Amino acid sequence: MRSSSLVLSVIAALAMPGVALAGPGGHGHSHADTAYGEPGDPKKPARIVQIAMNESDGKMLFIPDKIEVRRGEQIRFMLRNAGGQDHEFVLGTLEENLKHGEEMKKNPDMEHDDPNSKRLAAKKTGEIVWKFTKAGTFDFSCLIPGHRESGMFGTVIVK
């Protein structure tokens, strides 16, 4: 009886709106304001920042790998996977992304359904709209195992 109650509790938790399974903040984090901001409003104006994902000479990279924004600014990240492999863009604190990268090593096919991340197949495009509400230095990484270690990370500096 105890195990069936546990299963029902897990099912109920998964059905709750706002519960995420695989975000940089760990399982079950909400999409409220984070240390690095909050999901943007796609209907409001945003500065467009284009980010290319690629592999070259044994390295994996984002171009550009450094972005400066103003506190309170909304950014529309236009993502293009120009490479031949799947890549992802995960925005977070460095600590969160490193921790989530370790989780990804255990489950490399983990699906993301978070407003701060997007996984793209080769030659595909996507976008993330994000509002940076706090000053600081933040990370964006490809957390597919081996990709960050091959150089696929960057920095957002919020002034």
Describe the structure.
Residues 1-22 form the signal peptide. GO terms for molecular function: copper ion binding; electron transfer activity. It holds the Pfam family Copper-bind. Residues 24-43 are annotated as: Disordered. By secondary structure, the chain is α+β, with helices and mostly antiparallel strands. The protein has a single domain, classed as Cupredoxins -  blue copper proteins (Immunoglobulin-like). It is 17% helix and 36% strand. The protein has 2 helices and 10 strands, in the order H-E-E-E-E-E-E-H-E-E-E-E. The protein has helices spanning 2-15, 94-106, and strands at 38-39, 47-56, 59-63, 66-69, 74-81, 87-92, 117-120, 125-131, 136-141, 153-158. The strands form 2 sheets. A 5-stranded mixed sheet has the order 1-8-5-2-3, with no helix packed on it. Strands 4-10-9-6-7 form a 5-stranded mixed sheet, covered by helices on one side. Strand 2 and strand 3 form a beta hairpin. The longest helix has 14 residues, at 2-15.
Based on the model shown, name its key terms.
159 residues; Immunoglobulin-like; 2 helices; 10 strands; globular; disordered N terminus; BlueCu_1
Secondary structure blueprint with pairings:
Elements: H1 2-15, E1 38-39, E2 47-56, E3 59-63, E4 66-69, E5 74-81, E6 87-92, H2 94-106, E7 117-120, E8 125-131, E9 136-141, E10 153-158
Parallel strand pairs: 2-5, 4-10
Antiparallel strand pairs: 1-8, 2-3, 5-8, 6-7, 6-9, 9-10
